């Protein structure tokens, strides 16, 4: 059983996963009766007898601090606590919590076991429930918190100013190191790995979306963990709005990470009977290095988060880089005919199809076909796409409105706004307040009609700016709830669309990678990690993305050369091999490609289709040096099939290993080379049909033309192997 009681009083509990144990103790202060749920252990799996020994562990104390607070599952603002609070609440002028235990309740669920710890303030009408779930088939532990104002409350106002999903205590280590990602528009998911400083380290988004600057996850290791060896503790928040994640490293030792939605300054006022439930925060322990951590995150997402985890994602074409706002039926069909001839399976019409949308200053909110360009509507265009044998997709941006639109003229009160303050535009856009039920219902209505009338297979849901003047005057004291309800209503619309249209697939985009997280992935099939399609830059984006998110969700395009973002010229082969490391798409202007490039593109697409299930569903191993800067490779293993994509951006790459060692193979098996370089290959050093022992491939390695230390810039290979017998 994943949830086990360790004592007769119901104060000690162990949550077990296939490879880890998580021990909780509800400590009661004998003097005050105050309850403090503590995390006593999180690490490699323990036997029942070993877990019970945790009850005898003693902790360090000092006169001027309370080190034990770092072990609390939800350290509150109150009493002898001076660290980062996970829960802050005010009752009129009283800004301190004193919680007592109500009860602990285990329960069995279909694929997991759950533990609820119920607490209440000893005087004021606030109830707090800490919940934890241990899955039968995953090493991820899921936690969340519910706060509720009791209905028997008097007139004392109850306001919550901080509500995290939980705090996670990291076992003692001689040196903590953190891993996370930072970025900006067109430079998302840049991996950083550094010693965890003593004090507090905070990652956050105050933008109303997940954000480009950081992503809501962190990994902690003892300082010497490698890709394939050593312990890793990871924490990820499943939320697509504003968020905060703070890692605390205590001066006397010990570290913890608290994560939750919201940011500084918001106030959530609770009416009698009202409750707030946080999004899940997920924790994962592994002893197998960063690679094993990534693979465990990917497995959990496929089993318990993604809506269509086993589907093979189609090769798509997106028209944005080819046409921008110049969207016409003739122009789109001309691109579609070329795309179909290459083997593309899904054609997505991007921005510029609606209202009077001739540039980015107008018509957001007016979601009907452009009256001049499509006087007879869009049905002819999408019927034409389907006649070419492709599925049909469309770009939308439901949360935005232009001031120059019929919608804004009819409903100026629908935007985020504050009395006596200006309405700042960004990208000529204002943000619709999706927390308003009438805005949510309006969006669901036109999206449902659009999908139905055009028989759409795919929506690219974009969100191109952060919140400003995030107010809702009509909501009064409850207006800060919009920071929560906006995101949840986006989820509700997506979920309802999927229920009404089971064949519909959705992609999340927010100016590139501004809304990528385990929250949005519950309702979407793919995400767009960056507007930067330059292949060398995309390698670093893909590297950071893959740390916790599955490759089957990562959309990647083959762009034109020179690249429209960077002006950098790269070979078509390199562009394809980088895009093939995720869900392959084409984003260039196909009408300008030479016949030689089109022929080569067709061969690459066929090659990708032959291995895409391995790439999209296989277990990922990151090999070699820093992607985009040194010789590197990514390897995918699914059953007996192995695919290796090899990259060498610089011709004079003399440093690093001369042989590329593979990982995750059966050392006692023979592997046969099925393909040794793919279409358009140069003089490779492997030959199809040759055979190698798994132990040799992992301990010695293989060589390819792309891995050689001297040659042209931007060399790449795709090696395909199959296990024999």
What labels would you give this structure?
725 residues, alpha+beta, Beta-galactosidase, Chain A, domain 5, TIM Barrel, Immunoglobulin-like, 3 domains, 10-stranded antiparallel beta sheet, 8-stranded parallel beta sheet, 12 helices, globular, glycosidase, Alpga-gal_N_sf, Alpha-galactosidase, Glyco_hydro_36, hydrolase
Q: Would you mind describing this structure in some detail?
A:
There is one protein chain. Strands 6, 7, 8, 9, 12, 13, 15, 16, 20 and 21 form a ten-stranded antiparallel β-sheet that branches. Helix 9 runs parallel beside helix 10 and helix 10 packs parallel to helix 11. This protein is of the alpha+beta class and 725 residues long. The mean pLDDT is 94. The chain contains twelve helices and 37 strands.
Our estimate of the beta-strand percent is: 25-35%
Specify the CATH class of the largest domain.
Answer: Mainly Beta
The percent range for helix content is 10-25%
Shape: globular
pLDDT averaged over residues: 94
| First and last CA, distance | 37 Å
CATH hierarchy: architecture of the largest domain: Distorted Sandwich
The CATH superfamily label of the largest domain reads: alpha-galactosidase from lactobacil brevis
Find the count of extended strands (DSSP E, 2+ residues): 37
Structural class: alpha+beta
What's the story with the biggest beta sheet? 10 strands, antiparallel
Tally the structural domains: 3
How many helical stretches? 12
pLDDT < 50 stretches: none
Q: Write down the Rg.
A: 27 Å
CATH fold-level assignment of the largest domain: Beta-galactosidase, Chain A, domain 5
Catalytic activity: Hydrolysis of terminal, non-reducing alpha-D-galactose residues in alpha-D-galactosides, including galactose oligosaccharides, galactomannans and galactolipids
Enzyme class: hydrolase
Pfam families: Glyco_hydro_36C, Glyco_hydro_36N, Melibiase
InterPro entries: Aldolase_TIM, Alpga-gal_N_sf, Alpha-glycosidase_related, GH, Glyco_hydro_27/36_CS, Glyco_hydro_36, Glyco_hydro_36_C, Glyco_hydro_36_N
């Amino acid at each position: 059983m994943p949830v086990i009681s360790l004592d007769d009083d119901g104060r000690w509990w162990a949550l077990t996963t296939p490879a880890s144990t998580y021990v909780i103790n509800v400590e009661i202060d004998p003097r005050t009766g105050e309850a403090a749920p503590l995390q006593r252990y999180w690490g490699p799996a323990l036997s029942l007898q070993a877990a019970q020994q945790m009850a005898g562990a003693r902790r360090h104390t000092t006169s001027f601090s309370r080190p034990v607070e770092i072990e609390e599952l939800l350290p509150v603002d109150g009493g002898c606590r001076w660290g980062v609070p996970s829960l802050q609440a005010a009752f009129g002028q009283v800004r301190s919590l004193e919680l007592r235990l109500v009860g602990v309740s285990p329960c069995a669920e279909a694929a997991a076991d759950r533990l609820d710890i119920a607490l209440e303030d000893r005087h004021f009408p606030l109830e707090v429930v800490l919940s934890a779930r241990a899955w039968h088939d995953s090493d991820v532990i899921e936690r969340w918190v519910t706060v509720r104002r009791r209905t028997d409350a008097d007139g004392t106002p109850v306001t919550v100013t901080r509500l995290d999903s939980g705090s996670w205590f990291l076992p003692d280590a001689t040196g903590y190191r953190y891993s996370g990602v930072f970025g900006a528009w067109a430079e998302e998911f840049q991996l950083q790995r550094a010693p965890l400083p003593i004090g507090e380290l905070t990652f956050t988004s105050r933008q109303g979306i997940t954000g480009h600057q950081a992503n809501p996850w962190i990994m902690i290791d003892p300082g010497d963990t490698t890709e394939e060896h050593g312990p890793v503790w990871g924490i990820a928040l499943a939320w697509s709005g504003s968020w905060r994640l703070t890692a605390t490293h205590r001066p006397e030792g010990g570290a913890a990470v608290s994560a939750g939605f919201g940011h500084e300054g918001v106030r959530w006022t609770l009416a009698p009977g009202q409750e707030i439930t946080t999004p899940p925060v997920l924790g994962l322990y592994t002893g197998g290095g960063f690679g094993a951590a990534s693979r465990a995150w990917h497995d959990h997402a496929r089993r318990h988060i993604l809506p269509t985890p086993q589907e093979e994602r189609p090769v798509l074409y997106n028209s944005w880089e080819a046409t921008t706002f110049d969207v016409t039926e003739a122009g789109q069909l001309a691109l579609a005919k070329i795309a179909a001839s290459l083997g593309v399976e899904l054609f997505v019409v991007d921005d510029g199809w609606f209202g009077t949308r001739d540039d980015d200053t107008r018509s957001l909110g007016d979601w009907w076909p452009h009256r001049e360009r499509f006087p007879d509507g869009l049905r002819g265009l999408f019927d034409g796409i389907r006649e070419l044998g492709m599925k049909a997709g469309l770009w939308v941006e439901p949360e935005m409105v232009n001031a120059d639109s019929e919608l804004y003229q009819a409903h100026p009160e629908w935007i985020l706004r504050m009395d006596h303050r200006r309405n700042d535009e960004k990208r000529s856009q204002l943000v619709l307040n999706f927390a308003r039920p009438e805005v949510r219902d309006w969006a669901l209505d036109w999206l449902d009609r659009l999908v139905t009338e055009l028989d759409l297979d795919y929506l690219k849901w974009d969100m191109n700016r952060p919140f400003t003047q995030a107010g809702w005057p009509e909501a009064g004291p409850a207006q800060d709830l919009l920071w929560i309800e906006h995101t949840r209503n986006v989820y509700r619309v997506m979920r309802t669309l999927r229920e009404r249209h089971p064949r519909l697939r959705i992609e999340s985009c927010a100016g590139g990678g501004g809304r990528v997280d385990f929250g949005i992935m519950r309702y979407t099939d793919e995400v767009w990690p960056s507007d930067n399609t330059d292949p060398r830059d995309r390698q670093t984006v893909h590297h950071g993305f893959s740390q916790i998110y599955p490759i089957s969700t990562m959309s990647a395009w083959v762009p034109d050369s020179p690249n429209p973002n960077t002006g950098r010229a790269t070979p078509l082969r390199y562009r394809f091999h980088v895009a093939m490391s995720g869900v392959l798409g084409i984003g260039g202007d196909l009408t300008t490609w030479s016949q030689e490039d089109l022929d080569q593109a067709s061969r690459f697409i066929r090659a990708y289709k032959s291995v895409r299930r391995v790439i999209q569903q296989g277990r990922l191993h990151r090999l070699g040096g820093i992607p985009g800067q040194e010789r590197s490779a990514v390897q995918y293993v699914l059953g007996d099939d192995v695919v290796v994509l090899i990259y060498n951006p610089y011709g004079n790459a003399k440093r690093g290993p001369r042989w590329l060692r593979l990982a995750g193979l059966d050392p006692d098996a023979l592997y046969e080379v099925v393909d040794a370089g793919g279409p358009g290959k140069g003089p490779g050093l492997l030959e199809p049909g040759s055979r190698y022992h798994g132990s040799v491939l992992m301990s010695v390695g293989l060589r390819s033309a792309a891995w050689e230390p001297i040659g042209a810039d931007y060399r790449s290979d795709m090696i395909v192997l199959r296990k024999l017998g």
